[in-house]
Design goal:
By secondary structure, the protein is mainly β. The protein is built from two helices and 28 strands. The strands form seven sheets. The chain has a four-stranded antiparallel β-sheet with strand order 1-2-3-4, with no helix packed on it. The protein is globular and about 55 Å long.
Length: 364
């Protein structure tokens, strides 16, 4: 018996090691899904390349889809590794300015790695070309710098942000992290010079210089939970939306000094948490769960003229707006949790909308 015990111990150890190796790999069993050509669960984020040829969307249905911007035609569906439950849900997507790479993350990789990953896809082939691993919590937002040299990831929990350098050959290397956040970070935006602004549910807006040195950290005025941030084209102003109020604030892009709160009268319910300046600086757009109860027109995007701060409202969806991207052509791309996405023309009319192809029983 004494000679058998070491042998049994070795077998048990090998089984444990084998299970550990297997646990570090995505499941190999097929997981069948219905593919209608459109997302079947809420869209969480949306991205557009700098040439405005492509739209990318990421969804709770565990897919990333690439679309032709001008028509809304589906080009391809990208499929990350998935598992049971939350594993594979996409909370964030971004497309590199040159359109070569698509970054996606969310609840991605935790089931087998016990840490979260960002997947980098080739836009042309749809294959995963890189996996950025070891992140401590879910990915809430992804954004490329305007020159494509950096990718920033906002993390859940109190884990702050991570920044990756992107080489000309497509390699991604960690270059900066700031873990000194008191709440989840849901948004980050670069200006043309490479400076970075972030929001956090800890109540603060942060401003980093182009070398990622934190230069200003200010408590937001319009609410306790700042969400969306956007630089004006010249970088002199920053718009901020909130999830706990319907406020949209303007701050100095130089030192985060509070400047003004935009007019949100007439909005009966919800927030304007996603914000964006247009490329020419003429308008500020915001949307979230905001709606008017009169006429029950649905979820709206509000557009302010920055010269007079008069506004107009554009009803666009039946569920919360999750992304607003103004285009250089004058149009606006939006996405919602309906799930839907679409294009608004320069006159403020819906050019096209892609709606879900499944029945929605969520309110029954």
């Amino acid at each position: 018996m004494r000679s058998i015990k070491p042998f049994l111990f070795c077998i048990i150890l090998q089984i444990v090691l084998l299970n550990t190796v297997l646990a570090a790999e995505p499941p190999s069993e097929p997981i069948l899904k219905i593919d209608t050509g459109m997302h079947t669960a809420p869209i969480r984020r949306i991205g557009v390349d700098s040439s405005e040829r492509f739209i990318v969307t990421g969804s709770y249905d565990k897919t990333i889809k690439l679309w032709e911007a001008g028509s809304g035609r589906l080009i391809k569906t990208l499929r990350p590794p998935v598992g049971e439950g939350d594993e594979g849900k996409i909370y964030a997507v971004a497309i590199s300015p040159d359109g070569r790479h698509i970054a996606a993350g969310g609840w991605t990789g935790y089931e087998w790695d016990k840490s979260v990953s960002i997947y980098i896809f080739s836009k042309d082939t749809g294959a995963i070309t890189a996996r950025l691993t070891g992140l401590p919590n879910v990915i809430r937002h992804l954004s490329y710098s305007r020159d494509g040299r950096y990718l920033v990831a906002c993390l859940g929990g109190k884990n702050g942000i991570r920044v990756y350098g992107v080489s000309s050959s497509g390699r991604y290397n960690p270059v900066f992290k700031d873990k000194d956040y008191g709440g989840q970070s849901y948004w980050a935006a670069f200006d043309a010079s490479g400076r970075l602004a972030t929001s956090s549910l800890d109540g603060y807006i942060r401003l980093y210089d182009k070398n990622f040195r934190l230069i200003y950290k200010k408590k937001a005025v319009g609410g306790g939970q700042p969400f969306g941030v956007s630089f004006s084209p010249d970088g002199r102003k920053i718009a901020v939306g909130f999830i706990d109020t319907k406020s949209v604030d303007i701050y100095s892009g130089v030192d985060l000094r509070f400047i003004q709160t935009l007019d949100t009268k007439g909005i009966d319910y919800g927030n304007l948490s996603k914000v964006s300046f247009t490329p020419d600086g003429r308008f500020i757009l915001a949307g979230g769960s905001a709606q008017k109860l009169i006429n029950n027109e649905g979820i709206l995007i509000r557009r302010w003229d920055t010269s007079r701060f008069e506004y107009s409202d554009i009803p666009v969806a039946k569920d919360a707006i999750m992304g607003i991207i103004p285009l250089k052509s004058g149009g606006v791309v939006f996405a919602s949790q309906e799930p839907s996405f679409g294009l608004i023309d320069r006159q403020g009319s819906i050019y096209y909308t892609k709606k879900p192809d499944i029945a929605d029983f969520r309110n029954n």
